[in-house]
Amino acid sequence: MKHILTALALLAVLPAQAAEKLTVALDWTPNTNHVGLYVAQAKGWFNDAGLDVEILPYTDTSSGTLVSTGVAQFGILSAVGFHSQRSMGADMTAVMAVVQHETGRLVFNGEREDIQRPADLDGKIYAGFGSAWEKALISSIIRHDGGEGTFDTVTLGTSAYEALANGSVDFTLEVSTWEGVNSELLGRPQRAFNYADYGVPDQHTTFLGGNGGWLAANKDTAAAFVKAAQRGYEFAADNPEEAADMLIAGTAGMLSNPELVHASMKALVEGGYLRDPGEEVGLIDPQLINGIAGFLFEAGILRDANGDPLAELPDVSDWYTNAYLAQ
Question: In terms of CATH architecture, what is 104-198?
Fold first, then answer.
């Protein structure tokens, strides 16, 4: 008995094994695309996996850059940004599809009688965000409808939505599950053209990605993190109201409009954006990856490390993996 007590006493003074620290970078200020991370944090699922996870605040440095340079082990990555940086040699791999389908759309004032089809946008004013993707995307949509694909651009960033509402511009792009939902809440009638209706391939619009070198050296830790995050998104898909409350609570007042957060979660779930029927949450579809990569290549958006357009369509099979997901 004495020996047992001595052993227990020794165990009591031994330090507990420290949780492994990980950082995950956000691609924008906190929103419902990030909900699974905050759910996993609130539920203690990262801790249960032996991980001490820090969600880094959004900065002027893109999440893709933070991941590819190893500042963060993981990051939420916009699809177009991921493909663009990966083609230039960025060291990162998509490990989970956060948003399963295209949530973007081209929008305009719902009361405009002069805009009935994409070809009607020729010569009109677009409120943009400063990326090469926008010009290629919009021109392609207009030309697919028989137009010339010519329009004027003013770069306004997030001010685009106010400019659209007050009539300073004719059209812009938005995320239907966030800005689109917000427009409905504000009572601003809109109509929209969905990309896939005009020749643009569907895509996973948001990924969870990891630093390639770190993933190779830390496979078990990577799997533990991804599975916990996947569990968070699965919970959100099944419990959108509760997940929205966790996101609001976990972001320390950064989300000041609870109605928008709850309405956005409803749109994500009801639109089937977090889960495809009969599939696990987070599964990456090779057909979607190949389809959008082909579109970006043809548009000249995929460039090499020198900034020159790629001469050949790249093999993207090693740009992503489903190996870390629970299946």
Answer: 3-Layer(aba) Sandwich (3.40)
